[in-house]
What we know:
CATH topology: Rossmann fold
Number of helices: 8
Number of domains: 1
Strand order of the largest sheet: 3-2-1-4-5
Amino acid sequence: MAGKNATPPRRVLLDTNIFLIGFTDDISAENRVIDYLMAHRARTILLLSDEMCDQLVRTAKRVRDKDWAGLLLFYLWRDFAVGYVDLNETWDLVREYASKIPREDLLVFLTAMVGNADCFVSLNRKLLKAALGQNPPFECLTPEEFLGKYQTKE
């Protein structure tokens, strides 16, 4: 089925879980999201922040090892147009959203907010629900929802 809107979002934040699953399972929805964004890298900017990179490295080391963690970061910088989001001056936003977004996910949410994301993709339904509750200026989608909306049959 063709997606309703084949024009990819301009600024996208992928949660850490999308990268980890997408780079380990070639037939997963997460892998198809990554492939889609790589195919549209001339139009799409992948948002990263220190928090996102730290989470990715920390989790990838637990899943496999430090070499794989480094390889994932290499792939991100090589295969995507990256927009780096500086969260150093966001204390007012941290205070504003601290009671509304799960603590462990707050800086991920703020990466999307400060980075002016158009779309945030995650498997973390608790985070997606909390983010949607804040009426963010960006879409909050699971990988399947993202593919259903943006991916078209070739």
